[in-house]
Structures are given as C-alpha cells and as structure tokens.
Amino acid sequence: MKLLLLCSFVLLCGLTSAMRKQGVGVRGKLLCGTQPLANAKVKIVDTDTGPDPDDTLDEKTTDSRGHFQLDGTTRELTDIDPVLYIWHDCYDADTPCQRKVTIKLPKKYIHSGTVENWIELGEMNMEGHFAEEDRECVH
After folding, report:
1. What are the boundaries of the region Disordered (predicted)?
2. Most buried residue among 28, 106, 108, 112 by CB atoms closer than 10 A?
3. This prediction's pTM
4. pLDDT tens across 96-139, in order?
C-alpha cells in the first residue's frame, strides 16, 4: 500500500513538472462602423477536447475607445489552442442575445510566461458578419 502511494506521488510530481506554462497576448481596437465599440466582452481561451475543460487565459471588456489588450497563461502538456472570443451588439441591438465571433489565434505567438510578440489585430469593424460567428445569451 505504501509503495502504491509512493509511486502515485512520484508519477503526479513528474506529470506536474511536465506541464508547460503557455500563453498568448492579443490586442486591437473594435469598431461598429466608424464608431468605437465600447464594452464589448473579449476573452482568450485555450480550447481543449475530451474531458479536459477549456481554460480561460484572460478576459476583459473594450474601453471607451474600443481598445483591448489581453494576456494570460495556463499550464498544459501539449501546445495550447488559443482562440479569441468577442461578444457584441454592433448593428444588432433588437435581436436577442449577443453576436459571438471566434478568431483562431496563430500558434507561433504562444509564449512561456511573458509576451514577446503580441498578436496585433489592428482595427476590426464588427458590423460585418464573420465565418466563425453565432449567437450566445450566456457567456
């Protein structure tokens, strides 16, 4: 019994040390037409498959000028699969729930704890429709 506990402890310690700290930093400005899109919710998530739940790396809302800057980390054995979610009501105020846009982020920007290269999205006009878009009431 003691040997089983010791082996489990050693295995758990080895697995924990194998988990790599990884993150991504993204920033940009959201517009609704020519106006800044203030108070839009933005979130970086590491999407996972199987029983492992998705990990939120960072989330905020855009400022009064539509700007946002997100940077967060998690620990994973394999490379993270980062995505940016944006929830907004640009040209959509009368429709229930919010528009949710999903943007897959390039893996080449993954860092090990400190952002070295930001993903610069620049200005994005959210009044158009995106290929990766749906609706979500709870987020």
Report:
1. 46-68
2. 28
3. 0.84
4. 899 999 999 999 999 999 999 999 999 999 999 899 999 988 87
